[in-house]
Amino acid sequence: KSMDSTLHYIHNDSDLSTNSSFSPEEERKSKVQDVVPQALLDQYLSMTDPSRAQTVDTEIAKHCAYSLPGVALTLGRQNWHCLKDTYETLASDMQWKVRRTLAFSIHELAVILGDQLTAGDLVPVFNGFLKDLDEVRIGVLKHLHDFLKLLHVDKRREYLYQLQEFLVTDNTRNWRFRAELAEQLILLLDLYSARDIYDYLRPLGFTLCSDKVSSVRWISYRLVSEMVKKLYMASTPTFVVDLMNELVEKFCRCHKWSGRQTFVFICQVKCLHLYSGG
């Protein structure tokens, strides 16, 4: 009952704006709330104090980051101003494990805060994680669809230009990164128009189909198959015709046997999907 009431509370209260020009006294008052004992919240917020990492636990900031979505859910979005500074401090922590923890949970925090606070306070942090180490980027990549679906359409389209950056990793042997990208692209097909799929997701799909690692290629075959399905169901038939022609030219008529085999596998995936009732 307590959890249900809290969820109802945070989803029905309007977003509150925050003022970054507080005096020290106003700053202290801005962190006052009446949901949990204030001393308990103050103790939690102090976990980002560098001196505590030296005297209490070197990973105390990581523990703080791990618990933040739960604290935000308990306090409700109307009290986000109590946590905002702490969240930004954690998001810029020098330890990549702290930033990685936040990256894996940013989509959950977005659900709690709502679209307005997400656009204002979380999107800048999300953009920073996209340019971080692979250990941090994988956190936002694994939940890319979960986060982008919460954004407005115009804001969501801005990330189409950045998807190809996921093909570049710190370690070229990190094939699981590309495999996760292929999995996420399958989910993203539902969020974008036929034009966007053809212009932005199609080139990524074709690139992944030629990956050196077979596990990445097999996921990519399903990705291209799903693209064909989505474009076939679109109101404009031009996209699916052009896509099919490109498949024939690039793979079916490829002078290498591996390319021709790719065409067969894509067709096989599609046939199995149709046979299963998809």
TrEMBL record:
Keywords: Repeat. Residues 11-32 are annotated as: Disordered. GO terms for cellular component: cytoplasm. It comes from the Eukaryota. One of its GO terms (molecular function) is protein phosphatase regulator activity. InterPro entries: ARM-like, ARM-type_fold, PP2A_Regulatory_Subunit_A. PANTHER family: SERINE/THREONINE-PROTEIN PHOSPHATASE PP2A 65 KDA REGULATORY SUBUNIT, SERINE_THREONINE-PROTEIN PHOSPHATASE 4 REGULATORY SUBUNIT 1. This is PP4R1 phosphatase. It comes from Erithacus rubecula (European robin).
